[in-house]
Structure to design on (922 residues):
């Protein structure tokens, strides 16, 4: 007989729910926040700390210096420390800024943002205390004060809890963050913190990053700053009517200071003017004099439906801040040191009312591509495979590559056309950065970009453009190689020809051979000139062969 | 006719001239080349007068500075110098000897001047064609493999050989059968039977066919070497003997027949000295299958390659005669081919006692 389960009163259940609400929410949703899986979690922690530091430094117009250290304390047990030279956090704000989950969540801002909004550092703190049982250590130095504290989050109240706080004698500026984590694992590879930092440095050439790896083979790694120019701050835009949903419209209506719905629409939306208002009036059944806070769902629905039909001017696109071709070039030279590369920053475009912009870099040869374990027998060098680097608003995306629009766009390009015979096995790095005030992620994990036709097409065009440039380089390189091999071929046979002619005519072998060498060199030089004069086709045409077909052989 | 000595002098002169010309180009700082006749289907034609395949006058330049030619250019110079040496030293060597004599590793590489004999043989043929002399005259001999018996005597140097006393093995045809080397005497035969296959030749020899039917039987064991063809040409020319070819009824056998009769494309430059235009095709044909009531199950289905080859041969000038076009069409239509041995189905001696005598009697030949 199975046990009859004991019934639990609703009050009891609710009490439990309240006590554990924040922690439970977190546990249940940590995979959504990127904190699932031992290897992935450690990278996500680094990501949260780094984006926080970069955003703060950028806002304060400071050239960022970051130092990230990971130390192994035991099995699947690490201490992670992140030090920046940012503005720091004033003592009066520090508890709030760090210790409240979701505290930073602002209502749906349309601005090019680096990280995952909201969960940020407080999620990391909660993860640390949940796995290690210890508060975390933070030191903060602003231009006025320097102090250190240990802090945890009271999960019951979703409130910060400061354990200790001390003034620091030695003044500094920035944040030092140190916390212990269990159930995480550091492993080398494409999803590692090191790779994350390398790519961050690539997309943010004004940042200097030092990384101390727990793996002695990696040790201390420095990514030098390639540019001293702090990028301009991106601008916030008002939502464009085309990109607005019913839910968002109602949310905005609740927070507006406008008294009338018509005023609300004109002030809180981008590109919504008197003409649009006139058109809208004809398409709805309620009075636009109405207080926006009183808007009903059905009414908002009518408005959004009308937005799809009304003609609007495209949203402003000058709010985006791409890496820029110039800075990306510097960065590639600095970090990848490829033999050749091409960089394309497309003009801004619009999808569903959101401005966006695509940047692409294709790097070939040198240290481009991912190093594999295999060694090329001919050159003795490590074999390199193509790597695709995905970025959204300058932030590396390391997971769920297969589901991402960037990967699909890269695969949609016919690389063979550009002289890359086997796309997967080439010393090739393909970098794509999508910038937008609103990145269309596939899910809450924010690691893959959804397919949007306009975005896909912009990426494809940019990649093809960059591919063409790379193709020219590769074919040039092949010509060089061919020339070298031709020379080798002719000179190889020259000595044999000289031996034969010497026997046949009695002329000294050395003299004949010397003259043949001169003829070979003259011919190759001539070909080179023809090539430079664009005579490639002409040269190919010269290859008429003594076609010696086998026809009914004898003997 | 020039004497052997005069010939040697001429060969040496021609080869040295080739070397001199190349040297002059080098002195002028030009990329050197050697002008050679084109030995492909595009440059051969059927000469109705001699009834043989002949080489046209198209030439091409084998250039040192062309990546597709350069290796062959080097090989041509080496072969020319080696042949010149042979002629001057008056030694005869086989084309295989020549290959080994010239094969060595190119300095500073792991590549050989010649990797296989199939690389040096065509170069020899190029030079033969270019200076218009037979390889025998270049002091080179090809390996021959053919055998012959019949009522005749051969004087080979000091030795006289009686070809009707050769037992089951027959007389091996030497590689040089030129009149200054081989003399044919005391011949008593009405025709020559040229048999494609060794095994079938042995059947004819064992059954004493040549004795009973007063003929000479010869085989080249597949595609005949030039010595067998030259010997048959001499027998035809000097003794006016008709030549009947007995081949498999398949594209390969019929092509061999055409080589005996008109010559081959690759040796088109010397076919006047090798081909026997009087040759007639005795069999097998697909028509014979009906005439002699040969059971269908011994036929073989045509392959894709067979059909391709039949179509090619149909377009050759020397196969344009109506009976041949009909034979090819019939072969394609019936979609089979037939080996000589298939006749054994009708009895081991059917071929020697019934088939061949009947065909000769009825003169049922293809032209």
């Amino acid at each position: 007989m199975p046990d009859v389960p004991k019934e639990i009163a609703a009050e009891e259940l609710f009490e439990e729910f309240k006590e554990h609400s924040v922690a439970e929410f977190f546990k249940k949703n940590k995979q959504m926040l990127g904190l699932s899986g031992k290897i992935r979690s450690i990278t996500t922690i680094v990501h949260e700390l780094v984006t926080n530091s970069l955003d703060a430094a950028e806002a304060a117009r400071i050239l960022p210096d970051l130092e990230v250290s990971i130390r192994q304390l035991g099995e699947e047990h690490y201490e992670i420390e992140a030090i920046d030279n940012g503005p720091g956090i004033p003592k009066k704000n520090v508890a709030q800024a760090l210790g409240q989950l979701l505290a930073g969540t602002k209502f749906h801002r349309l601005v090019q943002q680096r990280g995952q909004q909201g969960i940020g550092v407080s999620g990391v703190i909660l993860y640390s205390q949940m796995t290690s049982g210890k508060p975390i250590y933070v030191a903060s130095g602003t231009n006025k004060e320097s102090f250190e504290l240990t802090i945890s989050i009271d999960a019951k109240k979703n409130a910060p809890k400061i354990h200790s706080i001390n003034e620091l004698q030695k003044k500094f500026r920035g944040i030092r963050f140190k916390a212990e984590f269990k159930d995480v694992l550091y492993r080398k590879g494409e999803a590692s913190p090191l790779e994350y930092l390398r790519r961050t440095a690539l997309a943010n050439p004004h940042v200097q990053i030092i990384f101390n790896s727990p793996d002695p083979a990696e040790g201390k790694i420095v990514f030098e700053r390639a540019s001293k120019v702090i990028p301009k701050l991106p601008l916030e835009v008002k939502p464009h009517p085309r990109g607005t949903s019913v839910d968002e419209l109602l949310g905005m209506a609740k927070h507006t200071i406008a008294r009338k719905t018509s005023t609300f629409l004109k002030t809180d939306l981008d590109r919504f003017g008197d003409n649009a208002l006139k058109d809208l009036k004809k398409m709805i059944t309620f009075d636009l004099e109405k207080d926006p806070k009183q808007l009903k769902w059905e009414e908002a629905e009518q408005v959004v439906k009308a937005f799809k039909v009304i003609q609007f001017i495209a949203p402003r696109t000058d709010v985006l801040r791409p890496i820029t071709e110039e800075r990306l070039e510097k960065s590639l030279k600095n970090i990848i040191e490829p033999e050749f590369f091409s960089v394309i920053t497309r003009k801004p475009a619009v999808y569903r009312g959101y401005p966006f912009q695509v940047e692409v870099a294709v790097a070939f040869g040198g240290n481009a591509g991912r190093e594999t374990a295999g060694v090329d027998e001919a050159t003795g060098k490590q074999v390199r495979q193509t790597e695709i680097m995905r970025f959204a608003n300058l932030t590396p995306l390391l997971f769920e590559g297969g589901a991402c629009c960037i990967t699909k766009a890269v695969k949609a390009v016919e690389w063979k056309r550009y002289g890359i015979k086997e796309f997967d096995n080439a010393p090739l790095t393909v970098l794509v950065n999508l910038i937008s005030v609103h990145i269309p992620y596939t899910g809450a994990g924010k690691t893959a970009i959804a397919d949007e036709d306009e975005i896909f097409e912009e990426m494809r065009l940019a990649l093809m453009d960059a591919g063409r440039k790379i193709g020219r380089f590769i074919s040039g390189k092949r010509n060089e190689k061919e020339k070298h091999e031709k020379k080798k071929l002719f000179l190889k046979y020259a000595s044999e020809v000289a031996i034969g002619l010497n026997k046949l005519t009695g002329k000294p072998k050395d003299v004949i051979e010397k003259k043949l060498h001169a003829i070979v060199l003259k011919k190759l030089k001539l070909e080179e000139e023809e090539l430079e004069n664009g005579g490639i086709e002409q040269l190919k045409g010269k290859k008429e062969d003594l076609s010696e077909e086998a026809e009914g052989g004898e003997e | 006719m020039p004497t052997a000595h005069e010939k040697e002098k001429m060969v040496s002169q021609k080869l040295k001239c080739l070397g001199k010309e190349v040297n002059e180009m080098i002195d002028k700082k030009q990329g050197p080349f050697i002008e050679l006749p084109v030995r492909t289907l595009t440059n051969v034609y059927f000469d109705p007068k001699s009834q043989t395949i002949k080489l046209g006058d198209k030439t091409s330049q084998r250039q040192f500075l062309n990546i597709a030619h350069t290796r062959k250019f080097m090989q041509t110079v080496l072969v020319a110098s080696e042949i010149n040496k042979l002629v001057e030293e008056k030694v005869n060597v086989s084309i295989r000897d020549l290959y080994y004599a010239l094969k060595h590793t190119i300095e500073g590489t792991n590549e050989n001047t010649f990797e296989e004999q199939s690389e040096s043989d065509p170069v020899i043929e190029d030079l033969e064609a270019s200076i218009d002399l037979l390889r025998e005259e270049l002091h080179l001999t090809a390996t021959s493999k053919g055998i012959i018996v019949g009522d005749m005597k051969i004087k080979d140097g000091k030795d006289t050989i009686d070809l009707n006393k050769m037992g089951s093995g027959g007389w091996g045809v030497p590689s040089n059968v030129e009149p200054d080397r081989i003399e044919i005497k005391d011949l008593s035969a009405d025709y020559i039977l040229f048999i494609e296959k060794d095994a079938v030749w042995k059947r004819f020899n064992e059954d004493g066919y040549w004795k009973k039917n007063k003929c000479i039987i010869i085989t080249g064991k597949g595609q005949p070497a030039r010595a067998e063809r030259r010997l048959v040409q001499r027998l035809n020319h000097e003794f006016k003997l008709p030549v009947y070819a007995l081949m498999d009824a398949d594209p390969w056998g019929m092509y061999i027949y055409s080589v005996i009769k008109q010559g081959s494309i690759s040796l088109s430059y010397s076919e006047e000295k090798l081909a026997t235009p009087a040759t007639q095709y005795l069999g097998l044909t697909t028509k014979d299958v009906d005439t002699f009531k040969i059971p269908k199950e011994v036929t073989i289905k045509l392959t894709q390659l067979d059909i391709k080859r039949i179509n090619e041969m149909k377009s050759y000038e020397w196969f344009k005669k109506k009976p041949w076009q009909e034979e090819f069409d019939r072969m394609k239509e019936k979609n089979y081919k037939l080996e000589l041995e298939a006749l054994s189905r009708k009895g081991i001696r059917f071929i020697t006692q019934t088939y061949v005598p009947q065909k000769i009697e009825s003169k049922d030949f293809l032209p």
